[in-house]
Amino acid sequence: MSRRRHSDDSDGESPGQPHKRRRTSEPSEIEERLESLICRVGEKSNSSLESNLEGLAGVLEADLPNYKSKILRILCTVARLLPEKLTVYTTLVGLLNARNYNFGGEFVEAMIRQLKECLKVNMYNEAVHLVRFLSDLVNCHVIAAPSMVAMFENFVSVTQEEDVPQVRCDWYMFAFLSSLPWVGKELYEKKDAEMDRLLSQTESYLKRRQKIHVPMLQVWTADKPHPQEEYLDCLWSQIQKLKKDRWQERHILRPYLAFDSVLCEALQHNLPPFTPPPHTEDSVYPMPRVIFRMFDYTDDPEGPVMPGSHSVERFVIEENLHCIIKSHWKERKTCAAQLLSYPGNNKIPLNYHIVEVIFAELFQLPSPPHIEVMYTTLLIELCKLQPGSLPQVLAQATEMLYMRLDTMNTTCVDRLNAFAKSHHILSFDRSDCLTQDLEKPKPKFVREVLEKCMRLSYHQRIIDIVPASFSVLSPANPVCIYKYGDESNRSLPGYTVALCLTIAIKNKASNDEIFSILKDVPNPNQDDDDGEGFTFNPLKIEVFVQTLLHLAAKSFSHSFSALAKFHEVFKTLAESDEGKLHVLRVVYEVWKNHPQMIAVLVDKMIRTQIVDCAAVANWIFSSELAHDFTRFYIWEILHSTIRKMNKHVLKIHKELEETKARLARQHKRRDSDDDDDDDDRSTDREDGPLEEQIERLQEKVESAQSEQKNLFLVIFQRFIMLLTEHLVRCETGGIDVFTPWYKSCIERLQQIFLQHHQIIQQYMVTLENLLFTAELDHHILAVFQQFCALQA
Question: Where does the signal peptide begin and end (predicted)?
Answer without folding.
Answer: none
